[in-house]
Amino acid sequence: MDINEFKKNYLSSAQTLEHSELSAKLSLKFFKELLRFFPEIKVFNNPQDLTLLKYGAMLHDIGVMFEKNKKNPPKPHHKIGRDLILENKISGLDEAQNLVVANIVRYHRKSLPDENQHKCYKMLSKNDRKKTDVFASIVRLIDAFDYNHFNMVDDFSLDFDRNQRILTIDLGVNIMLNIGQGAALSKKKQFLEKVFDIEVLFN
Ligand SMILES: [Fe+2]
User: Fold this and answer.
1) Which residues, chain by chain, have CB under 5 Å from ion ligand 1?
2) How far is the CA of 60 from the centre of ligand 1 (A)?
3) Is residue 16 in a domain?
4) Residue 55 lies in domain
């Protein structure tokens, strides 16, 4: 299925579509900013891999409409989204690339990857696991930038203290004034902290 069809079919409300486009834009920018501090992720700085990050961010909420439609959803939306990608396949991507995008969607919330328990994660090559960890941890955090889907954060800046390994993020908004954002950020930053072995603080 073409990426535009995914968007048309599964991101029907204007607000969801805006949240998706914003998540993609900010995730790509976040990756580019991280490159300044973490040269080890340069291997993923190529058009093919960045397309996977973009699609993962763009499609992370495609399962939401199915979750909301049912009183007792059979699966949470991150798993519905993963399965929609695995079943329909994004046109232009090969099997391995589709699997990476599906795993980014899967890990944008809730539990972290477990290479012993999680079947779809186990199917990834070692390099694709690393790619998935980096990209999914970015998308997970970025999701909390726009936690209420109000488009309040449309830019940010990063600073990294190499000695203390502290990444400081300036969102350009007063987090304290946005009820729920502080909690969302502190929950959703943990994956990134683990993947990069850093502490993340907000300004
Ligand atoms: Fe989201």
Assistant:
1) 61, 143
2) 6
3) yes
4) 3-146
**Do the domain assignments include residue 175?**
no
Q: What is the pLDDT along the chain (203 residues), one digit of tens a residue?
A: 999 999 999 998 888 999 999 999 999 999 999 999 999 999 999 999 999 999 999 999 999 999 877 667 679 999 999 999 999 999 999 999 999 999 999 999 999 999 999 999 999 999 999 999 999 999 999 999 998 888 888 899 999 999 999 999 999 888 877 888 899 999 999 999 999 999 999 98
What pTM, to 2 d.p., does this model score?
Answer: 0.96
Residue in this structure with the two tokens 């930038």, named with its chain if needed:
145
CA of 114 to the centre of ligand 1 (A): 22
> CATH code at 47?
1.10.3210.10
* 5 Cβ neighbours under 8 A, 6+ residues apart: none
If one counts the domains in the chain, the total is 1
| Distance from C-alpha of 5 to C-alpha of 196, rounded to nearest angstrom | 34
